[in-house]
Design goal:
With 327 residues, the protein is α/β, with parallel strands linked by helices. Helix content is 44%, strand content 13%. The protein contains 14 helices and 11 strands. It has an 8-stranded parallel β-barrel with strand order 3-4-6-7-8-9-10-11, surrounded by 7 helices. A two-stranded antiparallel ribbon has the order 1-2. α1 links the parallel β3 and β4. Belongs to the dus family. One of its GO terms (molecular function) is tRNA dihydrouridine synthase activity. This is tRNA-dihydrouridine synthase.
Length: 327
């Protein structure tokens, strides 16, 4: 699959943009485990043009994680154009427009998935951003606003006509948020549409290597994107890539090996930020890790992880788990 000159190979697997998750340290870790392209946390266009410090930090990328996309969101054409130009100066490989975030503080203000209620403005913004920058522009969106307005098949054509060079579709409506099952049938319909010639990337509920391969085989997508399934499990890219390439499951990764990866994730987060902010950022990823699923009476330990404030405290909890449970 190619996005302009960027060759992502066959059956690429991408790391989805996620707020408070896809910081540089986590992106690089996923990249090392096989992610073919990574995305930054989504960046507010309004905050960007006001040079808000925390927002500006989200533009920090390094060559080791390339190809990397920076994703922006907003509800005003002029602001989005200005933000796009700022982003282009930081030299990402791709600029992605977020028309898919369903959370109230974004969609409720008309940005993100909220734009699904104002298609003319969505298209106006897309055209303007494409015209404003020289790097490839892509879009991420959803099936539609709600079950009665699943408009993605016609919307995909309209977005393509605006000049975007790839489209990512999350298989839910905004009304669904992250509940229920992702519906890939409409993603498949977009891909099969003879008018669509840009790459179509599918997103939603890709949680196993088998499901990843199934999405390629059944729906014909050019790439898949993994989001929440990477929480506390960055090695999912290693598992998925191996299965897609060989048709066989990767030999089981040991519990100790996975624990070492989580420790590394803690240290990477702390080194990127500082101890206090790094722990605040990473502790919920660890608590959500599927490697702890099935451990009896784990609730109190999980709560302790979520309350840890230092590396020493968090590592002592991991040592306790390692010493008292064999998985």
């Amino acid at each position: 699959m190619k996005i302009r000159h960027i060759d992502l190979g066959e059956h690429p697997v991408l790391l989805a943009p996620m707020e408070d998750v896809t910081d540089p340290a986590f992106r690089l870790m996923c990249k090392k485990f096989g992610a073919d392209m990574v995305y930054t946390e989504f960046v507010s266009a309004d905050a960007l043009i006001r040079s808000v410090g925390k927002t500006m930090q989200k533009l920090n990328i390094n060559d080791e994680e390339r190809p990397v996309a920076i994703q922006i969101y907003g509800k005003d054409t002029a602001t989005m154009v200005e933000a796009a130009k700022i982003v282009e100066e930081t030299r990402p490989d791709i600029l992605d427009i977020n028309f898919g975030c369903p959370v109230k503080r974004v969609a409720g203000k008309g940005a993100g998935a909220g734009m699904l209620q104002n298609i003319p403005l969505m298209l106006e913004i897309t055209r303007a951003v494409v015209d404003a920058v020289k790097i490839p522009v892509t879009v991420k969106t959803r099936l539609g606003w709600d079950n009665d307005h699943k408009i993605i098949v016609s919307l995909a054509e309209q977005l393509q006509d605006c000049g975007i060079e790839a489209l990512t579709i999350h298989g839910r409506t905004r009304a669904q948020m992250y509940t229920g099952e992702a519906d890939w049938t409409l993603i498949g319909e977009v891909k099969k549409n003879p008018r669509i010639h840009i790459p179509v990337i599918g997103n939603g509920d890709v949680t196993t290597p088998q499901r990843a391969k199934e999405c390629f085989d059944l729906y014909g997508v050019d790439a898949i994107m993994i989001g929440r399934a990477s929480f506390g499990r960055p090695w999912i890219f290693k598992e998925v890539k191996h299965y897609i390439e060989t048709g066989e499951e990767l030999p089981p990764l040991s519990f100790d090996w996975k624990m070492d990866v989580l420790r590394r994730e803690v240290l990477d987060s702390v080194n990127l930020l500082d101890e206090r902010r790094g722990i605040l950022h990473v502790r919920r990823h660890l608590a959500a890790s599927p490697i702890f699923k099935g451990i009896p009476n784990f609730k109190e330990t999980r709560i302790a992880m979520l309350r840890a404030e230092t590396v020493k405290e968090l590592f002592s909890i991991l040592d306790y788990i390692k010493g008292n449970y064999t998985l």
